[in-house]
Write a structure and sequence with these properties.
It comes from Pleodorina starrii. The protein has 403 residues and is an alpha/beta fold. It contains 15 helices and 13 strands. Helix 2 packs across helix 11 and helix 5 packs across helix 10. Bound molecules: 4'-deoxy-4'-aminopyridoxal-5'-phosphate (PMP). The site of 4'-deoxy-4'-aminopyridoxal-5'-phosphate has 13 residues, from helix 5.
Protein backbone atom coordinates (compact mmCIF):
# COMPACT_ATOMS: atom_id res chain seq x y z
CA UNK A 1 0.00 0.00 0.00
CA UNK A 2 2.79 2.46 0.78
CA UNK A 3 5.01 1.66 -2.22
CA UNK A 4 3.86 4.84 -3.97
CA UNK A 5 5.08 7.08 -1.10
CA UNK A 6 7.84 9.39 -2.30
CA UNK A 7 10.94 10.22 -0.27
CA UNK A 8 10.51 13.71 1.22
CA UNK A 9 13.45 16.10 1.20
CA UNK A 10 15.16 16.69 4.57
CA UNK A 11 14.12 19.83 6.46
CA UNK A 12 16.48 22.62 5.34
CA UNK A 13 17.21 23.71 8.93
CA UNK A 14 16.97 20.50 10.98
CA UNK A 15 18.88 18.71 8.19
CA UNK A 16 21.96 20.86 8.91
CA UNK A 17 22.39 19.31 12.34
CA UNK A 18 22.03 15.82 10.82
CA UNK A 19 24.85 16.67 8.39
CA UNK A 20 27.01 18.01 11.21
CA UNK A 21 26.43 14.91 13.32
CA UNK A 22 27.49 12.64 10.46
CA UNK A 23 30.66 14.68 9.73
CA UNK A 24 33.71 12.89 11.25
CA UNK A 25 36.07 15.90 10.94
CA UNK A 26 37.20 17.14 14.40
CA UNK A 27 37.12 20.80 13.27
CA UNK A 28 33.43 20.60 12.37
CA UNK A 29 31.16 23.47 13.45
CA UNK A 30 27.37 23.57 13.65
CA UNK A 31 26.21 27.08 12.78
CA UNK A 32 22.82 25.94 11.55
CA UNK A 33 21.24 25.24 14.88
CA UNK A 34 18.83 27.86 16.17
CA UNK A 35 19.62 27.13 19.79
CA UNK A 36 21.89 28.85 22.28
CA UNK A 37 25.26 27.27 23.02
CA UNK A 38 27.75 28.10 25.74
CA UNK A 39 31.28 29.29 25.00
CA UNK A 40 32.18 25.57 25.20
CA UNK A 41 29.59 24.76 22.53
CA UNK A 42 27.25 23.02 24.96
CA UNK A 43 23.45 23.32 25.32
CA UNK A 44 22.50 25.45 28.32
CA UNK A 45 19.73 24.87 30.86
CA UNK A 46 19.04 28.13 32.68
CA UNK A 47 19.59 28.08 36.44
CA UNK A 48 16.19 29.70 36.95
CA UNK A 49 14.64 26.86 34.95
CA UNK A 50 16.43 24.17 36.97
CA UNK A 51 15.34 25.82 40.19
CA UNK A 52 11.70 26.13 39.04
CA UNK A 53 11.75 22.50 37.94
CA UNK A 54 12.99 21.35 41.35
CA UNK A 55 10.28 23.35 43.08
CA UNK A 56 7.63 21.78 40.85
CA UNK A 57 8.89 18.25 41.50
CA UNK A 58 9.00 18.89 45.26
CA UNK A 59 5.46 20.31 45.34
CA UNK A 60 3.12 17.70 46.91
CA UNK A 61 0.15 19.30 45.12
CA UNK A 62 1.71 18.54 41.74
CA UNK A 63 -0.22 16.04 39.64
CA UNK A 64 -0.39 14.89 36.04
CA UNK A 65 -4.03 15.64 35.31
CA UNK A 66 -4.98 17.06 31.92
CA UNK A 67 -4.66 20.80 31.52
CA UNK A 68 -7.73 22.63 30.20
CA UNK A 69 -7.92 22.92 26.39
CA UNK A 70 -6.59 26.47 26.69
CA UNK A 71 -3.70 25.34 28.90
CA UNK A 72 -2.24 26.71 32.14
CA UNK A 73 -4.21 29.87 32.97
CA UNK A 74 -1.44 31.38 35.08
CA UNK A 75 1.09 30.81 32.30
CA UNK A 76 -1.28 32.44 29.80
CA UNK A 77 -1.75 35.48 32.02
CA UNK A 78 1.98 35.91 32.63
CA UNK A 79 2.91 35.28 28.99
CA UNK A 80 0.61 37.94 27.58
CA UNK A 81 1.72 40.40 30.26
CA UNK A 82 5.34 39.72 29.33
CA UNK A 83 4.61 40.70 25.73
CA UNK A 84 2.02 43.45 26.10
CA UNK A 85 3.47 44.96 29.27
CA UNK A 86 2.21 45.39 32.84
CA UNK A 87 0.35 48.60 31.92
CA UNK A 88 -1.29 47.26 28.78
CA UNK A 89 -4.75 48.84 28.26
CA UNK A 90 -5.86 45.69 26.38
CA UNK A 91 -5.04 43.49 29.38
CA UNK A 92 -6.57 45.92 31.85
CA UNK A 93 -9.79 45.91 29.83
CA UNK A 94 -9.71 42.08 29.54
CA UNK A 95 -9.76 42.31 25.72
CA UNK A 96 -7.10 39.64 25.12
CA UNK A 97 -7.88 35.97 24.50
CA UNK A 98 -4.84 33.79 25.27
CA UNK A 99 -4.32 30.06 24.91
CA UNK A 100 -1.26 27.97 25.63
CA UNK A 101 0.02 26.22 22.53
CA UNK A 102 2.93 24.08 21.37
CA UNK A 103 5.72 26.66 21.48
CA UNK A 104 5.97 29.26 18.72
CA UNK A 105 5.18 26.86 15.89
CA UNK A 106 1.99 25.55 17.49
CA UNK A 107 0.88 29.07 18.41
CA UNK A 108 1.35 30.19 14.82
CA UNK A 109 -0.52 27.13 13.57
CA UNK A 110 -3.49 27.61 15.91
CA UNK A 111 -3.53 31.33 15.09
CA UNK A 112 -3.47 30.71 11.34
CA UNK A 113 -6.28 28.15 11.60
CA UNK A 114 -8.39 30.52 13.70
CA UNK A 115 -7.90 33.36 11.20
CA UNK A 116 -8.69 31.12 8.29
CA UNK A 117 -12.09 30.26 9.83
CA UNK A 118 -12.99 33.47 11.63
CA UNK A 119 -11.74 36.43 9.63
CA UNK A 120 -14.78 38.24 8.21
CA UNK A 121 -16.06 36.59 5.02
CA UNK A 122 -15.16 39.71 3.03
CA UNK A 123 -11.46 39.47 3.95
CA UNK A 124 -9.21 37.57 1.52
CA UNK A 125 -7.33 34.57 2.95
CA UNK A 126 -3.96 36.04 2.02
CA UNK A 127 -0.89 36.28 4.23
CA UNK A 128 2.13 38.47 3.51
CA UNK A 129 5.43 37.08 4.78
CA UNK A 130 8.77 38.90 4.73
CA UNK A 131 11.24 37.77 2.07
CA UNK A 132 13.14 35.95 3.44
CA UNK A 133 11.52 34.52 6.54
CA UNK A 134 11.73 31.51 8.84
CA UNK A 135 11.06 28.63 6.41
CA UNK A 136 8.19 27.11 8.37
CA UNK A 137 5.95 30.20 8.05
CA UNK A 138 5.02 29.32 4.47
CA UNK A 139 3.95 25.78 5.34
CA UNK A 140 2.10 26.84 8.50
CA UNK A 141 -0.07 29.40 6.71
CA UNK A 142 -0.35 27.26 3.58
CA UNK A 143 -1.72 24.34 5.63
CA UNK A 144 -4.29 26.68 7.14
CA UNK A 145 -5.57 27.51 3.66
CA UNK A 146 -3.90 30.89 3.17
CA UNK A 147 -2.56 32.12 -0.12
CA UNK A 148 1.04 32.98 0.74
CA UNK A 149 2.59 36.15 -0.67
CA UNK A 150 5.85 37.89 0.13
CA UNK A 151 6.78 41.45 0.90
CA UNK A 152 10.26 42.77 0.23
CA UNK A 153 12.35 42.89 3.40
CA UNK A 154 16.06 42.29 2.99
CA UNK A 155 18.22 44.48 0.80
CA UNK A 156 21.10 42.32 -0.42
CA UNK A 157 23.15 45.38 -1.44
CA UNK A 158 23.18 47.01 2.01
CA UNK A 159 22.50 43.81 3.96
CA UNK A 160 19.92 45.94 5.75
CA UNK A 161 16.19 46.60 5.54
CA UNK A 162 14.52 47.35 2.21
CA UNK A 163 12.02 49.64 3.89
CA UNK A 164 10.89 51.24 0.63
CA UNK A 165 10.16 47.84 -0.91
CA UNK A 166 8.45 46.64 2.25
CA UNK A 167 6.10 49.60 2.49
CA UNK A 168 5.36 49.56 -1.26
CA UNK A 169 4.40 45.86 -1.16
CA UNK A 170 2.28 46.20 1.97
CA UNK A 171 0.54 49.32 0.67
CA UNK A 172 -0.44 47.35 -2.43
CA UNK A 173 -1.82 44.43 -0.38
CA UNK A 174 -5.58 43.86 -0.60
CA UNK A 175 -7.34 45.22 2.54
CA UNK A 176 -7.92 42.55 5.15
CA UNK A 177 -4.76 40.61 4.27
CA UNK A 178 -2.75 39.24 7.18
CA UNK A 179 0.78 40.62 7.56
CA UNK A 180 3.27 38.52 9.47
CA UNK A 181 5.77 40.65 11.41
CA UNK A 182 8.76 39.36 13.37
CA UNK A 183 8.43 41.12 16.73
CA UNK A 184 12.22 41.45 17.06
CA UNK A 185 15.43 39.78 15.91
CA UNK A 186 14.14 38.86 12.44
CA UNK A 187 15.04 35.30 11.45
CA UNK A 188 17.08 34.73 9.29
CA UNK A 189 18.35 38.25 8.56
CA UNK A 190 18.93 39.81 12.00
CA UNK A 191 17.57 43.03 10.49
CA UNK A 192 14.76 44.89 12.31
CA UNK A 193 12.88 48.10 11.50
CA UNK A 194 13.87 51.13 13.58
CA UNK A 195 11.44 52.70 16.06
CA UNK A 196 10.46 55.33 13.54
CA UNK A 197 9.97 52.70 10.85
CA UNK A 198 7.72 50.69 13.20
CA UNK A 199 5.63 53.85 13.68
CA UNK A 200 5.27 54.15 9.91
CA UNK A 201 4.40 50.46 9.63
CA UNK A 202 1.70 50.96 12.25
CA UNK A 203 0.14 53.76 10.20
CA UNK A 204 0.43 51.71 7.03
CA UNK A 205 -1.20 48.68 8.69
CA UNK A 206 -4.08 50.86 9.82
CA UNK A 207 -4.44 52.67 6.51
CA UNK A 208 -4.35 49.51 4.38
CA UNK A 209 -6.50 47.66 6.93
CA UNK A 210 -4.07 44.77 7.29
CA UNK A 211 -4.37 42.22 10.10
CA UNK A 212 -1.06 42.24 12.04
CA UNK A 213 0.21 38.86 13.20
CA UNK A 214 3.33 39.17 15.38
CA UNK A 215 5.70 36.26 15.71
CA UNK A 216 7.63 36.77 18.94
CA UNK A 217 10.24 34.03 19.19
CA UNK A 218 13.13 36.06 20.63
CA UNK A 219 11.79 38.48 23.26
CA UNK A 220 14.72 39.39 25.53
CA UNK A 221 17.12 37.45 23.39
CA UNK A 222 17.77 40.30 20.96
CA UNK A 223 18.80 43.09 23.31
CA UNK A 224 18.86 41.30 26.66
CA UNK A 225 15.94 43.53 27.70
CA UNK A 226 12.46 41.97 27.69
CA UNK A 227 10.66 45.32 27.48
CA UNK A 228 12.82 46.77 24.71
CA UNK A 229 12.28 43.67 22.57
CA UNK A 230 8.50 43.96 22.98
CA UNK A 231 8.37 47.59 21.82
CA UNK A 232 6.87 46.91 18.39
CA UNK A 233 4.10 44.65 19.71
CA UNK A 234 3.25 47.19 22.43
CA UNK A 235 3.26 50.06 19.95
CA UNK A 236 0.60 48.32 17.84
CA UNK A 237 -1.48 47.11 20.80
CA UNK A 238 -1.43 50.48 22.55
CA UNK A 239 -2.51 52.21 19.35
CA UNK A 240 -5.71 50.19 19.71
CA UNK A 241 -5.14 47.74 16.87
CA UNK A 242 -6.61 44.28 16.93
CA UNK A 243 -3.74 41.87 16.48
CA UNK A 244 -2.58 38.30 16.80
CA UNK A 245 0.56 37.32 18.72
CA UNK A 246 2.45 34.01 18.82
CA UNK A 247 4.99 33.70 21.64
CA UNK A 248 7.70 31.12 22.06
CA UNK A 249 9.67 30.41 25.23
CA UNK A 250 12.11 28.17 23.37
CA UNK A 251 14.95 30.68 23.09
CA UNK A 252 14.42 33.18 25.87
CA UNK A 253 13.96 30.50 28.53
CA UNK A 254 15.88 27.74 26.76
CA UNK A 255 12.76 25.54 26.85
CA UNK A 256 13.15 24.29 23.26
CA UNK A 257 11.92 20.73 23.71
CA UNK A 258 9.31 21.60 26.31
CA UNK A 259 7.14 23.29 23.68
CA UNK A 260 5.96 26.20 25.83
CA UNK A 261 4.20 28.95 23.90
CA UNK A 262 1.14 31.14 23.85
CA UNK A 263 -1.23 32.56 21.27
CA UNK A 264 -3.02 35.80 22.06
CA UNK A 265 -5.72 37.59 20.09
CA UNK A 266 -6.16 41.24 21.03
CA UNK A 267 -9.78 42.26 20.41
CA UNK A 268 -11.98 45.32 20.89
CA UNK A 269 -13.90 44.17 23.98
CA UNK A 270 -14.10 41.67 26.80
CA UNK A 271 -17.17 40.04 25.20
CA UNK A 272 -15.38 39.49 21.89
CA UNK A 273 -12.30 38.11 23.68
CA UNK A 274 -14.49 35.57 25.48
CA UNK A 275 -16.03 34.42 22.21
CA UNK A 276 -12.64 34.28 20.48
CA UNK A 277 -11.24 32.12 23.28
CA UNK A 278 -14.17 29.71 22.94
CA UNK A 279 -13.37 29.35 19.23
CA UNK A 280 -9.64 28.91 19.83
CA UNK A 281 -10.55 25.92 21.98
CA UNK A 282 -12.51 24.45 19.08
CA UNK A 283 -9.40 24.78 16.92
CA UNK A 284 -7.23 23.05 19.52
CA UNK A 285 -9.50 20.21 20.66
CA UNK A 286 -9.40 18.13 17.45
CA UNK A 287 -5.69 18.90 16.88
CA UNK A 288 -4.15 17.74 20.18
CA UNK A 289 -6.88 18.10 22.82
CA UNK A 290 -4.80 20.03 25.33
CA UNK A 291 -1.19 21.17 25.67
CA UNK A 292 1.68 19.62 27.70
CA UNK A 293 2.00 20.85 31.28
CA UNK A 294 5.64 20.74 32.29
CA UNK A 295 7.18 23.54 30.22
CA UNK A 296 4.32 25.94 30.91
CA UNK A 297 4.56 25.18 34.65
CA UNK A 298 8.27 26.01 34.57
CA UNK A 299 7.75 29.21 32.57
CA UNK A 300 4.89 30.31 34.85
CA UNK A 301 7.05 29.83 37.92
CA UNK A 302 10.03 31.61 36.42
CA UNK A 303 7.92 34.58 35.33
CA UNK A 304 5.77 34.65 38.47
CA UNK A 305 8.36 34.26 41.21
CA UNK A 306 10.28 37.53 41.75
CA UNK A 307 13.52 35.78 42.69
CA UNK A 308 13.44 33.36 39.75
CA UNK A 309 12.34 36.14 37.43
CA UNK A 310 15.35 38.27 38.38
CA UNK A 311 17.64 35.27 37.95
CA UNK A 312 16.14 34.59 34.52
CA UNK A 313 16.57 38.16 33.35
CA UNK A 314 20.18 38.14 34.42
CA UNK A 315 20.85 34.93 32.51
CA UNK A 316 19.00 36.31 29.51
CA UNK A 317 21.23 39.38 29.54
CA UNK A 318 24.22 37.06 29.76
CA UNK A 319 23.14 35.05 26.72
CA UNK A 320 22.42 38.18 24.65
CA UNK A 321 25.77 39.61 25.71
CA UNK A 322 27.71 36.52 24.67
CA UNK A 323 26.08 36.56 21.26
CA UNK A 324 26.90 40.25 20.82
CA UNK A 325 30.48 39.59 21.88
CA UNK A 326 30.70 36.89 19.19
CA UNK A 327 29.66 39.46 16.58
CA UNK A 328 32.60 41.65 17.59
CA UNK A 329 35.05 38.73 17.62
CA UNK A 330 33.94 37.53 14.19
CA UNK A 331 34.00 41.07 12.77
CA UNK A 332 37.54 41.66 14.07
CA UNK A 333 38.67 38.33 12.64
CA UNK A 334 37.16 39.11 9.23
CA UNK A 335 38.74 42.58 9.19
CA UNK A 336 42.12 41.18 10.20
CA UNK A 337 42.08 39.08 7.01
CA UNK A 338 41.28 42.08 4.77
CA UNK A 339 38.42 40.24 3.13
CA UNK A 340 36.93 42.50 0.44
CA UNK A 341 33.56 44.08 1.21
CA UNK A 342 31.86 45.84 4.09
CA UNK A 343 31.38 43.37 6.93
CA UNK A 344 29.96 45.87 9.42
CA UNK A 345 26.56 44.17 9.02
CA UNK A 346 27.89 41.46 11.34
CA UNK A 347 27.90 44.05 14.12
CA UNK A 348 24.63 45.72 13.13
CA UNK A 349 22.40 42.67 12.76
CA UNK A 350 20.33 41.71 15.79
CA UNK A 351 19.68 38.47 17.66
CA UNK A 352 20.79 34.94 17.17
CA UNK A 353 21.67 34.99 13.47
CA UNK A 354 23.80 36.78 10.98
CA UNK A 355 22.78 36.75 7.34
CA UNK A 356 26.10 36.78 5.54
CA UNK A 357 25.07 37.22 1.93
CA UNK A 358 27.33 34.27 1.00
CA UNK A 359 26.08 32.50 -2.11
CA UNK A 360 24.77 28.97 -2.17
CA UNK A 361 27.98 27.67 -3.75
CA UNK A 362 30.10 29.50 -1.15
CA UNK A 363 27.98 27.92 1.59
CA UNK A 364 28.39 24.51 0.01
CA UNK A 365 32.14 25.03 0.03
CA UNK A 366 32.02 25.96 3.71
CA UNK A 367 30.26 22.65 4.40
CA UNK A 368 32.34 20.40 2.13
CA UNK A 369 35.81 21.85 2.46
CA UNK A 370 35.70 23.45 5.89
CA UNK A 371 33.16 21.27 7.73
CA UNK A 372 31.22 24.36 8.76
CA UNK A 373 27.56 23.40 8.67
CA UNK A 374 25.00 26.12 7.94
CA UNK A 375 21.78 26.67 6.01
CA UNK A 376 22.55 27.30 2.34
CA UNK A 377 20.94 30.76 2.42
CA UNK A 378 24.09 31.99 4.21
CA UNK A 379 22.58 32.27 7.68
CA UNK A 380 24.96 31.57 10.54
CA UNK A 381 24.00 31.11 14.16
CA UNK A 382 26.12 33.47 16.24
CA UNK A 383 25.11 31.44 19.28
CA UNK A 384 27.00 28.47 17.85
CA UNK A 385 30.30 30.40 17.74
CA UNK A 386 32.94 30.89 20.42
CA UNK A 387 36.12 32.96 20.74
CA UNK A 388 37.99 29.72 19.95
CA UNK A 389 36.05 28.90 16.76
CA UNK A 390 35.48 32.41 15.29
CA UNK A 391 39.02 32.62 13.76
CA UNK A 392 38.45 29.31 11.97
CA UNK A 393 35.16 30.60 10.53
CA UNK A 394 36.84 33.85 9.40
CA UNK A 395 39.61 31.86 7.71
CA UNK A 396 37.02 29.72 5.93
CA UNK A 397 34.99 32.75 4.81
CA UNK A 398 38.17 34.40 3.48
CA UNK A 399 38.82 31.25 1.46
CA UNK A 400 35.33 30.87 -0.03
CA UNK A 401 35.09 34.60 -0.87
CA UNK A 402 38.44 34.45 -2.70
CA UNK A 403 37.45 31.36 -4.71
N1 LIG B 1 9.29 31.87 14.68
C1 LIG B 1 10.56 32.13 14.40
C2 LIG B 1 10.89 33.39 13.67
C3 LIG B 1 11.56 31.24 14.78
O1 LIG B 1 12.82 31.52 14.48
C4 LIG B 1 11.20 30.06 15.46
C5 LIG B 1 12.25 29.07 15.88
N2 LIG B 1 13.27 28.84 15.04
C6 LIG B 1 9.85 29.85 15.75
C7 LIG B 1 8.93 30.77 15.35
C8 LIG B 1 9.29 28.66 16.47
O2 LIG B 1 10.04 28.01 17.34
P1 LIG B 1 9.44 27.01 18.41
O3 LIG B 1 8.27 26.32 17.79
O4 LIG B 1 10.55 26.11 18.72
O5 LIG B 1 9.03 27.88 19.55
Amino acid sequence: MWEQVQQAPPDPIIGVTDGWRADPDPRKLNLGVGAYRTEEGKPYVLKAVREAEQQILADPAMNKEYLPISGNAEFNRLARTLALGPNSPAIREARVATVQALSGTGSLRVGAEFLSTHLPASFPRIVYLPNPTWGNHKSIFGKAGFQVREYRYFDAATRGLDFGGMTADLTAAPPGSVVLLHACAHNPTGVDPSREQWRQLLELTRRTRLVPFFDSAYQGFASGDLDADAAAVRLFAEAGLELVLAQSFAKNMGLYGERAGALSVVTKSREVATRVESQLKLVIRPMYSNPPMHGAAIAARVMGDPKLNAMWQEELRGMAKRIKAMRQVLYDQLRARNIPGDWSFVLKQIGMFSFTGLSRSQCEMLVKKWHIHLTLDGRISMAGLSAATAPYLAEAIADVVAN
